[in-house]
Amino acid sequence: MIKAAQQNKVLVLCWFTETLDRLAEHFTKAGASAANLSLAQQIRKQQTEGSAIIFAEHFPIREKEGEVYERLQLKEATVYSALDEPLLKRFGGEKIISLVKNLGANEDEAIQHSVISSSIRNAQNKLKQKVSIEQHATSQEAWMRTNAVN
Q1: At what angle do helices 93-102 and 114-130 cross, to 10 degrees?
Q2: Which domains occur in the chain, in start order?
Q3: How does pLDDT run along the chain (150 residues), one tens digit per residue?
Q4: Distances in whole angstroms, Cα of residue 74 to Cα of each of 13, 48, 53
Q5: Taking the model in full, what pTM does it have?
């Protein structure tokens, strides 16, 4: 978060409209401005100048993320994901949740570990192999229902 503090503002990008709407509601209830929330697909490089960028979730297919990262000229991206979000739940997120709890982490604590990053990449790669024609969805859960083959 030091990087974010050194920037003029923080942009929070979402992949799905339901996530954007939930965050906007949460920000408003907390008395914060929702003006710096946007859909990742709609943001342009010029809009990010002087801003720290945080993604509120992963997109189920890694290549889609890569396209946006490239367009925004990001060398790295900070992504906050819930361990119980549909992408992780589908590919063994329960095991990671159990491991994190056994290590003594709190539910609202931000964690970063190569095992989690690797699990997300593996899940995204498996989905890419299963999805031939991607269907649009308004949430990650709906995307998984619509696109993910069992």
Answers
A1: 170
A2: 2-147 (3.40.50.300)
A3: 444 444 468 999 999 999 999 999 999 999 988 899 999 999 999 999 989 999 999 999 999 999 999 999 998 889 998 888 888 888 777 777 787 778 887 777 777 878 788 888 988 999 999 998 999 999 999 999 999 766
A4: 13, 10, 9
A5: 0.85
